[in-house]
Design a protein that fits this description.
The complex is a heterodimer.
Chain A: E1 3-8, H1 14-32, E2 40-44, E3 55-62, H2 67-85, E4 92-99, E5 104-106, E6 109-110, H3 121-124
Parallel strand pairs in A: 1-2, 3-4
Antiparallel strand pairs in A: 1-3, 5-6
Helix pairs in contact in A: 1-2
Chain B: E1 2-11, H1 17-35, E2 39-48, E3 53-55, E4 58-59, E5 63-66, H2 75-93, E6 100-103, H3 107-118, H4 126-144, E7 148-150
Parallel strand pairs in B: 1-2, 2-7, 5-6
Antiparallel strand pairs in B: 1-5, 3-4
The chains are: A alpha/beta, B alpha/beta.
């Protein structure tokens, strides 16, 4: 978590997929301060998207951040992904779906609340992707 | 009898048929032990083709498992269940603790998420697409003995 699900009708070439996964991670971590090892990106192809939409992204993110931070995160993701993929912003949909951290387990541990990563012992002890 | 939909997104070919049946069995018994025998779990196995998932910017080998529970389930009950499912998943598959991502959400949140996934589809093609997904899952069950399909439609 976060888990970003990227849906497209057409297949995205593998090198571009790699670039997009890294970009999503960098934007997410740059704005939220989340560890990179938390960031999952899943690509789904051949999805019959709503009219005029080329790229649909649903991001499951930890609940507890301010609305302002989530808006910034959403806008920055849209802006940078649009540039990388050369898709106009109006052809993209990106929604964030908040999930309480205490409902998620990764690396055999319950995730810390957003902003509490520094106090999380198992994370500080080393969490490898 | 409560029907509990369990969605497991796994790397294509990473878990054999017998292990999938074993996982269905141990997760069901774990769920019933923690939350009652009146729950029937229905598993949906979604295969992720190679090079379609990334973790920390690198190719991922992780599986994502979503198991909803009753709304408002206290963490004192939720967390022991989560720890047991992760441990059993690792035991059956032989994967590392970093290769299992488990989400145990409230049922209402899980339903809202499923609904939001469906709104991606072209409105006029929504029913047709959902029938296609269902048909694919059933075809997978006839072929392999469990409901399965690809994350690609």
């Amino acid at each position: 978590m976060p888990l970003y699900m990227v849906s497209t009708q057409a297949s995205i070439p593998v090198p571009k997929r790699q670039e997009l996964a890294s970009l999503i991670m960098n934007v997410h971590c740059g704005i939220t301060g989340a560890p990179e090892t938390f960031v999952n990106v899943l690509f789904m192809e051949n999805v019959p998207l709503a009219g005029g939409i080329t790229l649909n992204i649903i991001g499951n993110v930890r609940k507890g951040r301010t609305g302002e931070m989530n808006n910034t995160l959403r806008q920055e993701q849209i802006s940078q992904i649009s540039e990388l993929m050369r898709v106009p912003e109006h052809q993209m949909e990106l929604s964030l779906f908040e999930v309480p951290a205490s409902w998620i387990m990764e690396g055999g541990e319950v995730l810390p609340e957003p902003g509490e990563e520094d106090q999380c012992q198992w994370l500080q002890a080393g969490h490898n992707a | 009898m409560n029907i509990i939909p369990v969605t497991c997104s796994i790397q294509d070919g990473s878990i054999g048929h017998n292990k999938i049946k074993q996982l269905e069995s141990v997760i069901t018994s774990t769920y019933q032990t923690h939350f009652g025998s009146g729950n029937k779990l229905v598993f949906f196995w979604l295969k992720i083709p190679y090079e379609q998932s990334y973790l920390a910017g690198k190719l991922s080998t992780a599986s994502t498992v979503q198991i909803p529970v009753k709304n408002g389930m206290p963490n004192e009950m939720r967390h022991p269940f989560m720890a047991e499912v992760c441990a059993k998943w690792q035991h059956v598959t032989g994967c590392s603790k970093n290769e299992i991502i488990l989400a145990v959400s409230d049922m209402s949140q899980s339903k809202a998420f499923t609904k939001s996934m469906a709104t991606r589809f072209e409105k006029s093609a929504r029913t047709k697409t959902q029938i296609k997904i269902l048909t694919g899952l059933i075809a997978g069950k006839i072929k392999k003995g469990y409901l399965n399909s690809s994350v690609n439609l």
